[in-house]
Amino acid sequence: MELIIRLVALAVLAALLALLLKGKQGELGLLVALAGLAALFLALAEPFGELMAFLRTLSEGTGLDAAVFTPLYKILGIALVVHLGGQLCRDAGESALAAGLETAGSVCAILAALPLLERALSLLGELMQG
Q1: Would the pTM of this model clear 0.85, i.e. be above it?
Q2: pLDDT at 30 over 70
Q3: Nearest to 102 by CA among 83, 88, 118
């Protein structure tokens, strides 16, 4: 709980500072927002490591091989990066670029999911054969 309070405070402070600077020096406002985002990511490094360790433990406990969990990691990464990139594009006033980025992210996520789909279809075929 204390981590999210610190992150919210950091984000609000960076947003307010960026807003103040955008009126006078728009480029500096965007840089402050990017610096705030970088600080958020640095603060999330340890919790993200804990999450990845949990997912590794979960994958080992289920007996499923890495072919199942690796696409999930990739899809999660694609979703996070595309969402943040799209929001940054919108903040910069480039909503068309944000929409294009989201479309590209969807295509990349589908491509990353293909091995998982292939595995699911293979298992379904085995079950149908008996």
Answers
A1: no
A2: yes
A3: 83
